[in-house]
Amino acid sequence: MYRYFYYLVFLNMLANIILFAPRVLISHRFEGSTMAMLLSIPIGSTLLIVFVNSIRKFPGLGLPEILKNHMPNWIRIPFIIYFLSIWFVAGMITVISFSEITKKYINPDISSMVIAFAFICIIGLIARLRSDTILYSMEILIIMNVPFVLWVLYKAVTNNSMNYDACMEIVSHVWNVPTWDTFAAGTYIFTGYTNLVIFNRLMGTAKKMPFLWTIPIVGTCVLATSFLIPVGFHGTMNVNAYIYPWISTSDSMRVEFGLVERVLFIFMYLYTNISLAGSFIHWHVCLEFIKELMPRKKDKSYFSWIVIGVMGLTTYLFSYLFNDQTLYQTGVYFLNIRFASEIALVITMFMLARRKKQ
């Protein structure tokens, strides 16, 4: 089951490309983004390694069970409520974002609310399944989509429109002091490991996770391409004019002899699958947290339907409140809060592991 851990991390890295993190880095490209990226790699890798090695001290247990065994209820319950909110908002923002993206770039004649409703139904139906079924579904989506994503990246870096001088111009600002926003965006590519709070239940009994050293290498490549390729295509100044830089970048590429000439449509299909997978994983984790707070209803199937229905309705109602600007600002706030919360989660897990060892 170890491969599913790497799927979780890799899926989050891929989802990072199209949403808010690249735009945050691009908006601060002259104000410390390069330095933030360089520092985000050791910071994010350290958080990942510490968390994974700590939670693996509790083989077969998720975070709710670990907290139940080592914390009083007056700490455990608020802790779980706070983090289930983080996971719910992560899924909600992704659903709303892709509803707007689909309306703008695929079919402007359909209301984004109709699209959001369709996405919510799909994600809700999958999120209530068993954890092992969720992982199997994620594996299928990754195997089906990743080769084509790698092909799109290859087409980008070898494209004649790719201006590497613009990339070098951005890199020359490496000594500028980064901001918290850029740190939060840069470390987001590693955040997939936090899903072990639930999926650690399925990761076997061995206390070590092999090949962790590969994650910083892959993460560095993903972070560099997600930031620099849009700059290379659109220039150091114009790149900040786009709401979704990577979608505009994919629309700048053509497959001359392909069945579908515009890479945009291929890119949108791939990332709709990837983002939906990320959303149903987030909502599944949120659902499992809620089940832990409601032990009497935990085994009743209708309870999962009720929770998913409330999550879906909340997401649908929030869809009315967002436009492109407010959605982006909400995404930035979420990334900032997520980074601080992730640090707190890692420290908590590290302390619990130390207490068990003693």
UniProtKB/TrEMBL annotation:
Pfam families recorded: Spore_permease
Keywords: Membrane, Transmembrane, Transmembrane helix
GO CC annotation, single: membrane
Domain of life: Bacteria
GO biological process, one term: spore germination
Keyword Heme: no
Species assigned in the record: Paenibacillus ferrarius
Name under which the protein is recorded: Uncharacterized protein
Membrane-spanning intervals of the chain: 6-25, 37-55, 75-98, 110-127, 133-154, 211-233, 263-290, 302-321, 333-353
